[in-house]
C-alpha cells in the first residue's frame, strides 16, 4: 500500500517544485509506469530515463549500491537488536527487516561518472533549493516537509490553489477500477437498505465513509521511526460515532492490510448494521497481486463520500481523493492521544467534521 501512496506523493511533489519554484522536473519510468497502470492521466512530466543523458546507468548503479549497503546495514542492525540488553532502561526493539529502514543514498564520484549531471541528494528543506546549476535526486529518500510547512503552511490552498484539481485530474482511476468500486458500493448500499428499512421511508440516499487502517509491517515503523502511537479500536469507534451523529443513513467501508483485526476488534463491538469489511483481502485472487490489491482498495476508499484515515501516505490519499476531493476526513491528529508535539495547528482542536484544515496541510504535520 505504502509504495503506491509514496509514488503518488512524489508525482505531486514534482508539480510543487515545478509550479512553486520554477524547476525543471523529471519522473522515473518506474513511477510513471506504476501510476499509469491505475490512473488515466499520469503523463504530465517527462521521464528521466528518456530525457537525461546517462541517467539510466546512474540509476541502475545507484540501486545496486543502495541494495548492497542496505543489506549490510540491515544484517548488522538485526544482529545488534537480537543481542540487545533487555531491561527497563533499554526496551526491546523489533529485529525484523522492516523495522531497520532506511539507508540514505551515498552518491560518490564513481556513481557521478555514469551521468553528465552532478547528482546530489535533495537538501531536505525547500528553503535551501538552488534553482540553477544543481541536479537533485529525490527518490526514494530526499525530502521532509518542514520547509513546505514554513513556506506554505495553513495557506497552501492559497499559495498553490491547484493542488486539489491537479491531484484529482492526475489520479483519476481507470474506468474498470471505478466501475468495480461503484458496483461494490451499490451492493453494500442495497444490503444496508434491506437491513434498515425504517431509515428509508422517505429518502434513499446513503453516506459512505471509507475507513482505512494501516497495520501489518507498518506498526513497527510507526513506533520506532515516527514515534506514533498504534491506533486502538476506540479511535475508529469514536470517529464512526461522529459521522453517525452528523448523517442519518451512513455506512462504513473498512479497508486494511489486517482485515482480521477489524473483524475481531471493531465489527464484534458494533451493534448497528452499518459496518462492512470490504477490502481486497476479502478476495484471495486479488490479494495475491499486491499492485492490483492496493489499486482496488484505494479506488474503493476514494469512491466514498468521506473517510476515517490512519497513518501513512496511502491513507492520506484515501482521504484526499474521497468525495471528489471535498469529502470530510477524520485523522488521528484530531485526538490528543495520537497527536504529536509538532502537530500544533489550532484547526486540530475543532470538531473534525467542522475543521477548516486544508486538504494538503498534512504534508508535514500529519504523517512525518
Write the layout of secondary structure elements.
Blueprint: H1 2-21, H2 29-36, H3 48-51, H4 55-82, H5 109-112, E1 119-121, E2 135-137, H6 146-151, H7 156-159, H8 163-170, H9 175-195, E3 207-213, H10 218-226, H11 233-246, E4 250-256, H12 259-265, E5 275-277, H13 284-287, H14 290-302, E6 306-308, H15 313-321, E7 329-330, H16 362-365
Parallel strand pairs: 1-2, 3-4, 3-6, 4-5, 6-7
Helix pairs in contact: 1-2, 1-15, 9-14, 14-15
Unreliable stretches, pLDDT < 50, 5 or more residues?
A: 86-102, 140-151, 363-368
**Quantity of strands, as a count:** 7
**Relative helix content:** 40-55%
Strand content: 5-15%
What average pLDDT do the residues reach?
Answer: 79
Structural class: alpha/beta
| Widest β-sheet, arrangement of strands | 5-4-3-6-7
Compute the CA-based radius of gyration: 22 Å
Name the overall outline: globular
Largest sheet: 5 strands, parallel
C-alpha termini separation: 17 Å
Number of helices: 16
H/E series? HHHHHEEHHHHEHHEHEHHEHEH
Question: Can you give a write-up of this model?
Answer:
By secondary structure, this protein is of the alpha/beta class. The chain is 44% helix and 8% strand. The protein contains 16 helices and seven strands. The chain has helices spanning 2-21, 29-36, 48-51, 55-82, 109-112, 146-151, 156-159, 163-170, 175-195, 218-226, 233-246, 259-265, 284-287, 290-302, 313-321, 362-365; strands spanning 119-121, 135-137, 207-213, 250-256, 275-277, 306-308, 329-330. The strands form two sheets. The protein has a five-stranded parallel sheet, with helices on both faces. Strands 1-2 form a two-stranded parallel ribbon. The longest helix has 28 residues, at 55-82. The radius of gyration is 22 Å and the shape is globular. The chain starts with a helix and ends with a helix.
Amino acid at each position: 500500500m505504502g509504495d503506491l501512496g509514496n509514488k503518488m506523493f512524489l508525482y505531486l511533489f514534482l508539480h510543487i517544485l515545478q509550479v512553486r519554484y520554477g524547476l525543471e522536473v523529471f519522473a522515473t519510468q518506474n513511477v510513471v509506469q506504476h501510476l499509469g497502470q491505475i490512473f488515466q492521466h499520469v503523463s504530465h512530466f517527462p521521464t528521466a530515463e528518456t530525457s537525461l543523458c546517462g541517467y539510466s546507468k546512474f540509476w541502475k548503479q545507484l540501486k545496486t549500491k543502495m541494495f548492497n549497503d542496505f543489506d549490510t546495514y540491515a544484517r548488522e542492525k538485526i544482529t545488534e537488536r537480537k543481542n540487545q540488553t533487555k531491561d527497563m532502561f533499554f526496551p526491546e526493539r523489533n529485529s525484523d527487516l522492516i523495522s531497520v529502514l532506511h539507508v540514505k543514498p551515498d552518491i560518490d564520484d564513481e556513481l557521478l561518472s555514469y551521468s553528465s549531471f552532478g547528482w546530489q541528494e535533495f537538501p531536505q528543506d525547500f528553503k535551501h533549493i538552488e534553482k540553477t546549476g544543481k541536479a537533485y535526486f529525490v527518490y526514494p529518500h530526499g525530502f521532509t516537509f518542514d520547509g513546505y510547512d514554513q513556506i506554505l503552511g495553513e495557506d497552501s490552498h492559497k499559495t498553490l490553489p491547484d493542488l486539489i484539481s491537479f491531484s484529482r485530474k492526475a489520479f483519476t482511476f481507470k474506468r474498470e477500477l471505478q466501475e468495480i468500486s461503484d458496483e461494490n458500493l451499490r451492493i453494500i448500499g442495497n444490503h444496508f437498505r434491506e437491513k434498515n428499512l425504517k431509515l428509508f421511508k422517505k429518502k434513499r440516499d446513503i453516506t459512505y465513509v471509507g475507513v482505512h487502517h494501516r497495520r501489518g509491517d507498518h506498526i513497527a515503523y510507526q513506533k520506532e521511526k515516527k514515534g506514533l502511537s498504534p491506533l486502538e479500536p476506540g479511535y475508529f469507534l469514536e470517529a464512526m460515532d461522529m459521522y453517525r451523529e452528523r448523517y442519518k443513513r451512513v455506512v462504513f467501508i473498512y479497508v486494511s492490510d489486517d482485515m482480521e483485526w477489524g473483524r475481531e476488534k471493531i465489527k464484534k463491538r458494533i451493534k448497528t448494521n452499518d459496518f462492512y469489511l470490504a477490502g481486497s483481502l476479502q478476495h484471495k485472487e486479488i490479494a495475491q497481486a499486491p499492485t492490483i490489491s492496493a489499486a482496488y482498495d484505494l479506488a474503493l476508499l476514494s469512491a466514498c463520500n468521506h473517510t476515517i484515515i490512519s497513518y501513512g501516505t496511502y491513507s492520506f490519499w484515501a482521504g484526499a481523493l474521497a468525495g471528489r476531493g471535498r469529502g470530510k476526513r477524520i485523522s488521528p491528529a484530531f485526538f490528543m492521544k495520537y497527536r504529536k508535539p509538532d502537530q500544533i495547528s489550532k484547526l486540530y482542536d475543532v470538531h473534525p467534521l467542522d475543521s477548516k484544515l486544508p486538504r494538503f496541510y498534512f504534508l508535514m504535520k500529519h504523517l512525518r
